[in-house]
Each structure stands twice: as C-alpha cells, then as structure tokens.
Design a protein that fits this description.
Blueprint: E1 10-12, E2 23-31, E3 36-37, E4 41-43, E5 48-57, E6 61-75, E7 82-96, E8 105-106, E9 111-113, H1 115-125, H2 161-181
Parallel strand pairs: 7-8
Antiparallel strand pairs: 1-9, 2-5, 3-4, 4-6, 5-6, 6-7
This protein binds zinc ion (2 copies).
C-alpha cells in the first residue's frame, strides 16, 4: 500500500501500471493550495481549479492528456480595476517509469503529480498585459479618473507642462482671486 502524496493534483495510476493500451479518464477539482501566476495576474490561493485528464498506459510510462479550467485574477494594466480572466488550457505530458534525466516527469509510488504540469500550462497562457476590456481607455492622465466610467470626460484648457509648475504656485492664491470676481 502506497501513501498518498501531499499534492492535491496527484492521481493514482496503480491500475494502469505496465498495462500498455489501457486507458482511463478522470475529472477532479482542486482548491489551489498556494496560488500561481505571473507578476500581474494569476490563480489565487484557494481558487478552484478543474482538471479533466485522460491517462493512457504506454510502454515507457503513463501519458497524461487533458485540460484545465480556472479563473485568473489581477488588475487591468491600464485602469487598475480588478480583472477576472477565465483560463482554459490543454496539456500533455509523459510520466515515465524511468528516473532517467531524459524525462521531465516520473511516476512516484504509483502516483503521478499533475501540479507542475497544470501550473506551467496555466502560467504560460496568462497575459503579461491583462486589460479589463480590449478598448479600455485607461485613466485620465490629468486627474486619474477611469475614462470608461466617465464618457465624454475632458478638461478645459490642457495645461502646458512648462506653466504647470507656476500654476501650482499660483493655485495658492486662486481661491482669493476667484472670490474677488464674484
Ligand atoms: Zn481597464
Ligand atoms: Zn481628467
């Protein structure tokens, strides 16, 4: 009797070992224990990851082919609102009987651990510049409001950057002069 490994992505293949031609399918959901992604978007810790996998017994080992469904979360790089991105990716890897370095993945104690396979497939599919929508207009460079929330947003006279510093200083007395005009 083998002990079940720690990874929630581990799948027992004991019934398929050394039976070339045998095949089985399995589906499972994992609450991702750590979370993974790139610097700007990723699958959060505790987020549900659905895996459908087809396991085929080959002479060299077990071929795992399948797909992953998850939701990646991050921020729009243009306007900074939260972004939820459904991720659907496929994978196919051989888990070898041999511990030879030629194989990236091997079978341990009658289990294969799909975690690194799932992780790599998802991370490779993630955008480096996630946006809330393709035509996101970003933030107003002058005041920072989100332009999609403020259609028609504009400022009166664009401030010449050469005068901006002076305007900042004059701003201190602005309220006074405005009051005098009324
Ligand atoms: Zn956006
Ligand atoms: Zn503005």
């Amino acid at each position: 009797m083998s002990t079940k490994p720690q990874s929630p992505y581990a799948v027992s293949v004991i019934d398929l070992l050394h039976k070339p031609g045998e095949m089985r399918e399995k589906s499972f959901d994992v609450a991702e224990p750590e979370g993974f992604g790139n610097a700007v978007i990723g699958v959060r810790q505790g987020s549900s990851v659905h895996v459908d996998v087809r396991l085929e017994s080959l002479h060299d080992g077990i071929l795992a082919s399948g797909d992953v469904d998850a939701v990646a979360e991050g921020e729009c790089v243009r306007c900074l609102v939260d972004v939820s991105l459904p991720v659907e990716v496929e994978f196919q890897e051989l888990f070898a009987y041999s511990e030879d370095e030629a194989f990236d993945y091997t079978i341990h104690d009658d289990y294969i651990d799909l975690e690194p396979v799932v992780r790599d497939a998802v991370v490779l599919s993630l955008p480096f510049q996630p946006v809330c929508q393709e035509d996101c207009l970003g933030l107003c460079p002058q005041c920072g409001v989100r332009l999609l929330d403020n259609p028609g947003h504009e400022h009166e006279a664009p401030v010449d950057p050469r005068w901006a510093a002076l305007a900042g200083l004059e701003g201190l007395t602005d309220t006074e002069s405005e009051a005098e005009k009324r």
